[in-house]
Amino acid sequence: MVNSAVMSRQSVRVQIFNQSYSLLVDGDPQETHEIAHQIDELMFTISNRTSSGDSTRVAVLACLHLADQLRAAEKQLQSFEDKSERFALLLEEAIEHS
């Protein structure tokens, strides 16, 4: 039996920092193009600010930037989840006492 996820993968060609990559993606290829475009812009911005032509250095700095953004988003999500849990408990208590 063939895994349907494997069958639904599509080959997508993207350009990041003057390099071409062929990727196998699940889902909407346009999303992959949009992400690649954002990474490309980020890497060129970093390259221009650091005056570094070293693609490895630029890629590492881009990864650090994206990891920082991810950590901030995770902290914000955790805060929302904590607040949601507190509201759910308050609502549950209010329903029990009504």
How does this model look, in words?
The protein has 98 residues and is α+β, with helices and mostly antiparallel strands. The protein has one domain. Helices cover 69% and strands 14% of the residues. The chain has three helices and two strands, in the order H-E-E-H-H. It has helices at 4-7, 29-50, 55-96; strands at residues 10-16, 19-25. Strands 1-2 form a two-stranded antiparallel ribbon. A hairpin with a 2-residue loop joins strand 1 and strand 2 (19-25). It is elongated. The chain starts with a helix and ends with a helix. The mean pLDDT is 92.
Model regions low in confidence, pLDDT < 50 over at least 5 residues = none
Mean pLDDT: 92
- The succession of helices and strands, N to C, reads HEEHH
Number of domains: 1
- How much of the sequence lies in strands comes to 5-15%
Q: How many strands, which pairing sense, and closed or not: the largest β-sheet?
A: 2 strands, antiparallel
Shape: elongated
- The total strand number stands at 2
What is the rounded distance between the termini?
55 Å
Strand order of the largest sheet: 1-2
Helix coverage percent of residues? 55-70%
Short description:
The protein is an alpha+beta fold and 98 residues long.
Task: List its traits.
two-stranded antiparallel sheet; alpha+beta; 98 residues; 3 helices
What is the strand and helix layout of this fold?
Elements: H1 4-7, E1 10-16, E2 19-25, H2 29-50, H3 55-96
Antiparallel strand pairs: 1-2
